[in-house]
Every structure is written in C-alpha cells, then in structure tokens.
Design brief:
The protein is mainly α. The protein has a two-stranded antiparallel sheet. The protein is globular, with a radius of gyration of 12 Å.
Length: 84
C-alpha cells in the first residue's frame, strides 16, 4: 500500500490526491509517453485508488517515490502543461 502525506500541494495550490498520483503513474507507464522512469515501474502491475490518500496493492511504488518528483496535475498534464 502507498499512502500519501496529507497537505502536499501542486504549485497552483491544489492538494495532490491518490487519483492525481494514479494519472501520473499511468502516464509514466504508457510506452507512447516515452518516460525514462518507465522501467522503474515494471514491478507495479495495477494502480488503484482506495481513497484520496491511498493506493492499495502497489508494493513496487513504495520503492520508487522519485518517479513522482515531477508529478503534474492531471488537467495540466492532459494539456501538455508543466510539472508541479
């Protein structure tokens, strides 16, 4: 299980949630996105959201928190925006 610390905010002031993390990780795992961090997430089979702060069943994610250093808000990422 991967649990987010409450109160972590993006540069625009919005709080980061487990859904935001899921969208970013799905993006990093997508081969068409071309992330150099993609192989770091090979051990993560499925990304699910339990509640705003919890992603259950992601044992590989706990070993790779650096993948989230450049997390973008999903709306910004969809528009090609910058990372937080």
């Amino acid at each position: 299980m991967f649990t987010l610390r409450r109160g972590v905010r993006f540069h625009d002031g919005n709080e980061m949630t487990a859904e935001d993390v899921k969208v970013n990780l799905d993006r990093l795992r997508d081969p068409t996105f071309g992330s150099p961090n993609r192989t770091k997430l090979d051990s993560v089979q499925e990304i699910r959201v339990r509640n705003p702060c919890t992603l259950p069943g992601c044992p590989g994610l706990a070993r790779q928190p650096s993948c989230l250093r450049t997390a973008a808000r999903p709306r910004a990422a969809a528009q090609g925006g910058a990372a937080a």
